Amino acid sequence: MTTDQNSIPSQNDRIMAALGNISILLPLIGLMVPIIIWVTQKEKSKYVSFQALQAIAYHLVMIFAYFIGMGCYMISFFSTFLTLPFANETSGSSASPLLMVGFIVPFLVMGAIFIGGTIFVLYGIIAAVMTLQGKDFRYFIIGNRVASFLEKQN
After folding, report:
1. How many CB atoms lie within 10 A of CB 69?
2. What's the burial of 134, exposed, middle or buried (CB within 10 Å: 0-12/13-18/19+)?
3. Looking at residue 31, what DSSP letter applies?
4. pTM above 0.90, yes or no
């Protein structure tokens, strides 16, 4: 799916590809946008087909990562309650270090989820800008896998 000098995508193709990528701003609902674009444009433009299929895969990776992150958050949150019986009751007003760590870990996990989500969204915005400029954008790892999938289909 490389674009050479003779096959510069049309403005309509660039807009469709950018819409598929910018829909990452609406993580779950936004998945429908590249699906609709891919279904309606896959026969019309290889550029739009490739970019939309990449956007679909990127959305799915982001959703999967989100569920994994939330699972880790839930484990860390509920493990806090497991540390309560081990709190040092004889120390008076000072809290046990184990208890303090148990209360901090869920916040750290949620912070990691937030930072990861922000990086995912920013990368999708970069993809949208580059495809709007007509460049052949490929997501890291996903782009090559989608390209090989499309080559097998042809």
Report:
1. 17
2. middle
3. G
4. no
SS (H, E, C) 53-110: HHHHHHHHHHHHHHHHHHHHHHHHHHHHHHHHHHCCHHHCCCCCHHHHHHHHHHHHHH
- Secondary structure (DSSP) of 111-136: HHHHHHHHHHHHHHHHHHHHHHTT--
The length of the chain in residues reads 154
Backbone angles phi, psi at 45, to 5 degrees: -145, 125
In the chain, where are the structural domains located? 11-153
Which tens digits make up the pLDDT trace of 51-65? Answer: 999 999 999 999 999
8-26 pLDDT, tens digit per residue, is 889 999 999 999 999 999 8
